[in-house]
Amino acid sequence: MQVNDALEGLRLAVGEKSLCFCTEVRNADSQRTTNRAWENVHKLDAEARRCRSTYQQAWSALQHLPFDSKYLDTLHDITDNDLKVAGI
Questions:
Q1: 3-class SS string, 53-86
Q2: Taking a C-beta distance cutoff of 8 angstroms, is the pair 24, 40 a contact?
Q3: Residue 19's closest CA among 49, 39, 44?
């Protein structure tokens, strides 16, 4: 299901963003490596936003279809705060 695929992609993107921040940004020892590390963080953030957009579109479509309301109650809106990683 597209909603589940989008959530999986979102989880992966946010996890990779966190890992990239912890390993690359914090360990950067020059301006060049710092800039490169932040570029990677921003790419992963853009990927997370794309997954959120896909999720929201699929969620909206499901709300307009006759679908199990118990399942729809488990789906929630994803905000910008949900995409933040501790330390950023």
A1: HHHHHHHHHHHCCCCCHHHHHHCCCCCHHHHCCC
A2: yes
A3: 44
pLDDT tens digits along 14-49 = 999 999 988 998 899 999 999 999 999 999 999 999
Tell me the C-alpha distance between 85 and 78, whole Å.
Answer: 14
Alpha-carbon torsion 49, 50, 51, 53, what sign?
positive
**Residue 9 near residue 51, CB atoms below 8 Å:** yes
CA gyration radius, the chain: 16
Give phi and psi for 78, each to the nearest 5: -105, 120
38: tokens are 């932040």
